[in-house]
TrEMBL record:
Highest taxon in the source lineage: Bacteria
InterPro entries from the UniProt entry: Ergot_Alk_Oxidoreductase (IPR051604), NAD(P)-bd_dom (IPR016040), NAD(P)-bd_dom_sf (IPR036291)
Protein name according to UniProt: NmrA family transcriptional regulator
Domain NAD(P)-binding per the UniProt entry, residue ranges: 6-180
Pfam families on file: NAD_binding_10 (PF13460)
Gene3D superfamilies: NAD(P)-binding Rossmann-like Domain
Length: 281
């Protein structure tokens, strides 16, 4: 049995499907998960990662755990308690969704320090572990879906600065491999897409997927900050703006790890936009 936390999210939903399609037994968990969120026949269980006792019943007797870091609420997350419960339940393997920021922004409270403490707990867990450090997700473009749907416009900062954003389905693919194949214990995988794309190019790709032009309006940093503060805590906003506006060479590097694990190139933003065009129509 493989337990997947964050199972209704961009990564977790794909992961549950990949594991179920591969014939693996899965228990999908999140706070609000219901029948409609899982493929037919997949077991699900409601649990809050901030109160790890709720996960105990599904961890007992499980083989492997996919641990979603829920970084934005990580001050509430007690990874040690979850990992202790997993080990006590007989779980032998843990795969954690961390972030590239642990390596590239080590001093950032939101990305580096919190992420490092979760990774450290995983390393000390006594289980076989694999750490996934993705860069920005293709699915961050969902933040633009309403303005594309209603106005065929996207307002975003740093229109011409490229990042190798990654398809959450590829993160899920690597997670699945690490959860049930051998050879991934003790590995730290850095996960990116196949190429740098700029916000302007991503907006163009959404327009191409829709078959209609979508206008790009470049925001100032202050305009972007004000908008992001409406739904993200301040330290997350500042680090995110720094990554989007002044990425380090490591944040702009295309990593070979998705291809190394999956044996194929990572999915492009344009491909993600075509598959998810309905969200922007
Ligand atoms: N987006 C990026 O660019 C990026 C880059 C690097 C790393 N990451 C990491 O990836 C993660 C986001 O992954 P994602 O996009 O797959 O997530 P997502 O789509 O935001 O989904 C979050 C999942 O976690 C569950 N969840 C949230 N709070 C919970 C809690 N207290 N207890 C139990 N479950 C909880 C949610 O379901 P319920 O609401 O039903 O609980 C949902 O299943 C972040 O933590 C971030 O650190 C993201």
């Amino acid at each position: 049995m493989i337990v997947v936390t964050g199972a209704t999210g961009n990564v977790g939903r794909s992961l549950v499907r990949i594991l179920a399609d591969a014939g693996r037994q899965v228990t999908a968990t999140s706070r609000r998960i219901s029948d409609a969120d899982v493929p037919q026949g997949v077991r699900h269980h409601r649990a809050d990662l901030t109160t790890p006792e709720g996960l105990r019943p599904v961890l007992d007797g499980a083989d492997a755990l996919f641990l979603h870091d829920t970084a934005t609420s990580a001050h509430l997350l007690r990874p040690q308690d979850i990992l202790d419960a997993a080990r006590a339940g007989g779980v032998g393997r843990v795969v954690v969704l961390s972030s590239q920021g642990v390596a590239t922004r080590p001093d950032s409270a939101s990305h580096g320090i919190v992420g490092r403490s979760i990774e450290d707990a995983v390393r000390r867990s006594g289980m076989d572990w694999t750490i996934l450090r993705p860069g920005g997700f293709h699915s961050n473009a969902y933040a633009w879906s309403e303005s594309v749907r209603t106005r065929r416009t996207v307002a975003a900062p740093f229109g011409d600065i490229g990042l190798p954003t990654v398809d959450p389905a590829d993160i899920a693919g690597v997670a699945a491999a690490a959860l049930y194949e051998d050879g991934h214990a003790g590995q730290v995988y850095e996960l990116t897409g196949p190429a740098l794309t700029t916000p302007r190019q991503r907006v163009q790709a959404i327009g191409d997927a829709l078959g209609e032009p979508v206008r790009f309006v470049e925001q100032t940093r202050d305009e972007a900050r004000a908008e992001m503060l409406r739904f993200m805590p301040e330290p997350v906003v500042e680090t995110t703006l720094a990554i989007l506006g002044e990425p380090t060479p490591a944040e702009q590097r295309v990593s070979p790890d998705v291809e190394r694990v999956l044996g194929r190139a990572p999915g492009s933003f344009a491909d993600w936009a075509r598959r998810h065009a309905a969200a922007f129509r």
